[in-house]
Amino acid sequence: MTTGLHVRDLVTEFHSREGTTRVLHGISFEVGANEIVGVVGESGSGKSTVVRSVVKLLMPPGRIMEGSAEFHGQDLVRLPERELRHIRGKEIGFVAQNPFSALNPVVRIEKQFANIAKAHGLKADAESRGLALDLLASSGVNDPERVMRGYAHELSGGMAQRVVIAMALYLNPRLVIADEPTTALDLTVQRQVLDTLTRLTKESGRSMLIVTHDLGVVANYCDRVLVMYRGRIVEQGPVSEVFVRPKDPYTVSLLNSVVQPKAASAGPAPAGSTLPTELFESRSV
Ligand SMILES: Nc1ncnc2c1ncn2[C@@H]1O[C@H](COP(=O)(O)OP(=O)(O)O)[C@@H](O)[C@H]1O
Ligand SMILES: [Mg+2]
Fold this sequence. Notes:
The protein has 285 residues and is α/β, with parallel strands linked by helices. The protein has helices at residues 47-54, 81-90, 99-102, 109-119, 126-138, 144-149, 157-169, 187-203, 215-221, 239-242, 249-256, 261-264; strands spanning 5-16, 19-31, 36-40, 62-71, 74-75, 92-95, 175-179, 207-211, 224-229, 232-238. Mean pLDDT is 89; it is low at 262-273.
């Protein structure tokens, strides 16, 4: 049985009365065990469609037409919804852009944790409540007890996303998928939340697929990167290779749009150079 996520030749279309739009034109990539893979590319290039296709959470009228997404030996594309529901949450944790869309506004946070456990056939007891409290604390929630007893609307965006991260990790999934997890947050809390998410992912040997428009995030946190352009992966590889010696013209222009002119005009990086992460610090496209 293979480990990790192996996506092969994924083709996704949106069908409507006006016609068919092919959004993904044969996407192939892998996320290995204990690996953090970033997905970058301009708005509309298909980043969200890729991650939503993998977990079969496409917005209607999206449809996967071809390809496979093998996860620890099972093809998610062909799995019945009942089995997928078990994998989502338990094996794959999902963190979306807007934390409030992931939280139920009328159910106390502690009850939402309990519901997640019960939905996967686990006991919602003092032990699992303790685990939720621990996860909230390590996600940077200051007063986990108070947050557990409260409702989503009492939380700031940053705190709400920390709660969602704790929920995504609650059942100890092997893979975390995050689609622009900090875009909706204030700039000052974005980095803290990303630090938390990637630290908790790495610490426990999980892997992660993270969509971001922030190349600094990729430079600082990711092992490998997929560069998307118009529904295709135009380049992929270790961040230290793709960001230092980009091969595709689109990757070059993407990097040039954030790298300081002085550094950009310095010519190709010398052989053996390491990734100049400071060039990407707090910059985005
Ligand atoms: N529900 C939908 N119906 C029709 N087209 C869609 C839908 N969702 C996304 N698309 C189209 O798919 C393309 C890729 O979108 P998306 O995956 O959201 O890009 P990204 O996340 O990179 O910004 C866009 O051209 C968008 O218009
Ligand atoms: Mg998107």
